[in-house]
Specification:
The chain is an all-alpha fold. The chain contains four helices and no strands.
Length: 73
């Protein structure tokens, strides 16, 4: 497989993952930036799975403090 095809294939994967991340953020937060029930459930699930607060904050585009409030409940 040529380098061009490999790069193009990898770019498609990245674009798909970026789209999924955008959808995740849409469902996890309101337009005002508050967490939805889905977002709170996602944080709870991430906590049970051992995912670090900082990683959740980056994933959902939240401040670490906002995640900490829900993570420690």
């Amino acid at each position: 497989m040529s380098a061009f095809k490999i790069i193009r294939s990898q770019l498609k994967i990245i674009e798909t993952e970026a789209g999924l991340l955008a959808l995740l953020r849409i469902y996890a937060k309101t337009d005002g930036g508050r967490l939805t029930d889905f977002g709170r459930d996602l944080i709870s699930s991430a906590k049970r799975s051992g995912i670090k607060q900082a990683d959740i904050a980056k994933l959902l585009d939240l401040s670490p403090g906002a995640v900490s409030q829900h993570y420690n409940k």
